[in-house]
Design brief:
Elements (H helix, E strand, L loop, with lengths): L5 H8 L19 H15 L2 E4 L5 E5 L10 E6 L14 E3 L7 E3 L2 E6 L15 E3 L8 H19 L8 E6 L13 H4 L3 E7 L4 E6 L1 E10 L15 H10 L17 E10 L2 E10 L4 H17 L6 E10 L3 H4 L3 H14 L4 E5 L4 H8 L5 E3 L11 E3 H19 L4
Parallel strand pairs: 3-8, 3-9, 9-16, 10-15
Antiparallel strand pairs: 1-2, 2-8, 4-7, 5-6, 7-17, 10-16, 11-13, 11-14, 12-13
Helix pairs in contact: 1-3, 3-10, 8-10
Amino acid sequence: MYNYTVKDRFLKYVTFDTQADPESKTHPSSMKQLELSKHIQGELAALGIKYETNEAGYIYGFIPSNTGNSHEKVCFCAHMDTAPDASGTDVKPRVHHDYQGQVIDYPDDVNLKLDPQKHSYLMKKIGDDIITASGLTLLGSDDKSGIAIIMDMATQIVNNPEIPHGEIRLLFTTDEEVGKGVDKVDLELLDADFGYTLDGAELGKIEYENFSANGATLDIKGVSAHPCCAKGIMQNAIKIASEVISNLPVDTMSPETTEHRQGFIHPTKIEGKMEGVQIQFILRDFDTPKLDEYEQLLRRTTEKVLEKYPNAGYELKIKHQYRNMREVLDNYPQVIKYATDACANLGIEFDLGLIRGGTDGAVLSHKGLPCPNLFTGMQAIHSKYEWVSVQDMQKAVDMTIEICKEIAKNKK
């Protein structure tokens, strides 16, 4: 049993407001992320761990091997920013010791209740210490739980030299929540053979497959005219846009009607005027070629609607976002095996699965660093209900250490 530091680190990290800004063009998108980066750099220095940083606030940590042998170099990665979906300002974490299945109240919002009937994973955490926020903000366990786990793992490695390990890399990024998490990564500097993101949920979850993703921007050009003399002239882009959206599949191909491996076309933003409207979509599927099918469906739907508006027009732009990490990880089975063996050694029942989203690891995998996603315990992310189990985080610390030990058994 280690003298864990993960809880105290986590309680400190969540007090830093690191909310990312999706409208920003800077790196990081919000300068306040740099405050947490500086704090972590101070912790690394105190541990005697060498590190480097860059203008985006990334941190690269380097722990040398203690075995004298040549092993694969492993990286553990987490992101410092929090989502823009709920406030991250003045987070007040609350620890609920020895949870016994009750509804959890929030002191700053009496109408907010964390009910195990709605959040069923709580019932698996009886006896655990549960951390929530106070009701006005998200908690920030996505992904400060991952940072705390990695930093505790590094602490145990440094303070317990009897733990055999090869070279270990730590990578902390900014702006993952706005799709820029590894835009500034320097893989040559990182110098790792493979990695793991600590950005997953339930105990034992090992995610090696994720959505492939494209963004789509549909610009609809209408014809404006004064309402008093609009007959036969006006072709209202607002109405055209509404028709395009309403003619997309209703019972399928949307987030609210799909699950598991089913993909979707999802409008996320619409703005404009009578003469022109822009609609932002995200296209998602585990089978990458299906993204082309979704693009064509969106194009056909638009063109069908425009048959009634001969003087209107459209432009559809597609942007590559990220791809399914399994396309890469299938070629590196040992990366998954290290994680499953680590769980088995610890008596943790593992669950190999998929994530209906993306992670830094998906992008890193396609950049050349195979990188599945591991559990942290985080729940109800991006919301005021967000919570995490201290014991889940501690078990994630155990798992990462065990992965290092498994790697140390094999020469490169």
